[in-house]
Amino acid sequence: MNRRDFMKSSIAVTGFVLAGPAISFGTEAEATGLSRIFVAGGDASEAVRSVLSEAGGMQAFVKKGDRVLIKPNFSFSNAPDAATTTSPELVKEVVLMCKEAGAKRVTVADHTIRVARTCLERTGMKAALDGIDDVKLSVPSKKSAFKTTGIERGKSLKSTEIAKDYLDADVYINIPVAKNHSAATVSFGLKNQMGLIYDRWVFHSKYDLHQAIADLATVIKPQITILDATRCLTTNGPSGPGEVVKLGKVMCSTDPVALDAYATTLLDWGGKTLKPEDIGHIKYAAEHGLGEMDLEKVEVVEAIPVKTG
Questions:
Q1: Across residues 243-268, what is the average pLDDT?
Q2: What is the DSSP secondary-structure string of 55-93?
Q3: pLDDT over 90 (residue 299)
Q4: Average pLDDT in the 237-241 region?
Q5: CB atoms within 10 A of CB 29
Q6: Number of H helices, E strands in the chain
Q7: CB neighbourhood size of 145 (10 A)
Q8: Rounded CA gap, 232 and 80, in Å?
Q9: Is 305 exposed, middle or buried, given 0-12, 13-18 or 19+ CB atoms closer than 10 A?
Q10: Quick one: DSSP state of residue 247?
C-alpha cells in the first residue's frame, strides 16, 4: 500500500508549474544491523549522484509511475551562498535522477517563510528547474492546501495540518540544508519537515519545539534524507547572515535520526561543540524509535565519485 492509498487523501497544489517526473526510496538498515550514512565530497551534483549510487542507485528506490515529493528548503529569500537554503543544483540533480527512474510526477515543495516568489527567484530554485519537463514547483500557503492529520504517537503534538503535496505522494525525499537554528539549535532533516505544515509558529508558541518536531516525524517519514552540507550556516540561523563554512559534502541515509545525529558532529553550531543528545528533537525522535542516535551503531560509508554530464 502506498502513502496515497493509506492516507486516503487528494491533492490541491498551489505554486508554480515548471517541468519533470519522480522517485521512490527507502529500506531500513542493512544486514549488518547498523544504520548507514553515505557521504561524498565535491560538486553538489556529482556528490549527490555518488551517495545515491553507493546507496544502491535511484533505480533501487524508484518505481515507474511513482508520484514523488521532494522537500528542499527554499524558505528564505537569500542567494545560495548564504547557506540558508538547499543548493538548487543538488535539487535539480535529484529531479533529473527521478526522471531517469521513470516516475510519473515530481513535486518540489516548501511552505516558505518569506514571500514565495522572491524566495524562488533569489534562491535560484526556479531558475534551476526551468526547462525540465513535467516538474511541479509548489509553494503551499493557503489552508486548503493542507489537511488536518492526527498524530497518534505524539507526546505533545496530537494533530496538525500537513501539506497535501505530502499526503498525495508515493515517495517522499527530504533535502535539507545543514545550518544553525536559533530556537532548535540545528536545522537538518527532522527540522526541515516543518516546511510541510500549515502553522509552524504554533510549534514555537504552544508546544515544546523539540518534542513537536519529533512528534511530527512519527507521521511525516522520508524514504530517504539527502543532506546538503556543501556550505553550512554555522551561526545566526536560520535566516542569516552568519558564518558560512564550505564543507563541500553531501550525505544521505534512510535513517533520518542517524543522519541528523551525524551532522551534529560535523561542525560547531552556534559557536558550540555539540553531541546528538544535546539536541532535543534528535533525542526525542530516537525515543520514538524513528532511528538510531548512537553513532557507535551507525556505519559511515565514503561514496565513490560519480561524474555527471
A1: 98
A2: TT-GGGT--TT-EEEEEE---S---GGGSSS--HHHHHH
A3: yes
A4: 98
A5: 18
A6: 11, 14
A7: 21
A8: 11
A9: middle
A10: -
Give the single-character DSSP code of 236: S
- Name the grid cell of 2: 502506498
Helix (H, G, I), strand (E, B) or coil at 235: coil
In DSSP terms, 161 is beta-bridged to 148
Q: CA 290 → CA 89, 163, 189, 197, 257, distances in Å?
A: 29, 21, 13, 19, 7
Q: Which residue has the cell 536560520?
A: 238
- Among residues 112, 107, 108, which one has the least CA distance to residue 84? 112
How far from 5 is each of 2, 9, 67, CA to CA, in Å? 5, 7, 12
Buried-exposed string 263-289: b where 16+ CB fall within 10 A, e elsewhere: bbebbebbeeebebeebbbbbbbbebe
CA atoms within 13 A of residue 150's CA, in its CB half-sphere: 3
- Rounded CA gap, 192 and 173, in Å? 11
Q: Is 261 helix (H, G, I), strand (E, B) or coil?
A: helix
* Mean pLDDT lowest among 28-37, 47-56, 85-94: 28-37
Q: Is 148 exposed, middle or buried (0-12, 13-18, 19+ CB in 10 A)?
A: exposed
3-302: what CATH class? alpha beta
Element spanning 52, H or E: helix 44-54
Q: How far is CA 78 from CA 87, 118, 188, 193, in A?
A: 11, 9, 18, 20
Q: Rounded to whole angstroms, what are the CA distances from 106 to 87, 102, 179?
A: 17, 10, 26
Q: Per-residue confidence at 9, pLDDT binned at 50, 70, 90? A: very low
Q: What is the H or E stretch that residue 147 is in?
A: strand 146-150
Q: How far is CA 156 from the centre of its chain?
A: 23
Name all contacts of 50-54 with Cβ < 8 Å and 24+ positions apart: 50/250, 50/303, 50/304, 50/305, 50/306, 51/226, 51/250, 51/251, 51/252, 51/303, 52/97, 52/226, 52/252, 53/303, 53/304, 53/306, 54/301, 54/303, 54/304
User: Is the pLDDT at 6 greater than 50, yes or no?
Assistant: no
